[in-house]
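Please, structure for the following, as tokens.
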Amino acid sequence: MDEHGIRALEERLKQAMMKSDVDALDALLADDLSFVDATGKVWSKADDLNGHRYGMQRIEWLDVEEQGIRLYETFAVTVTRVAIAGTFAGAPFAGSLRYTRTWGEVEGTWKVVAAQCGLVAF
């Protein structure tokens, strides 16, 4: 995998998140995913998919402001800053987040195996 390939995967992930496309997310997330959100809560893949499936989280706007990628033989790490807006559990939110994602080769396919996001001060 090269940088262009990881950027393409990140774009597919962004589009899937914005559309709450559960099938696309299912294909991009590892079965044993661990995602730590901005509150410190750990989400599994099922948690994340269900959040989109049942409308608990909706992303209305997501703009990638910067992104760095580090490549290794069988994994890559991305650090991405985004401006984001949407609703969570019916409550509106907007802000700036920084995501760190680890993409790994899982049975020949690249997937997000771990991720964490945090709030960025304006």
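The chain has three helices and six strands. The helical segments are 3-19, 22-28, 45-53.
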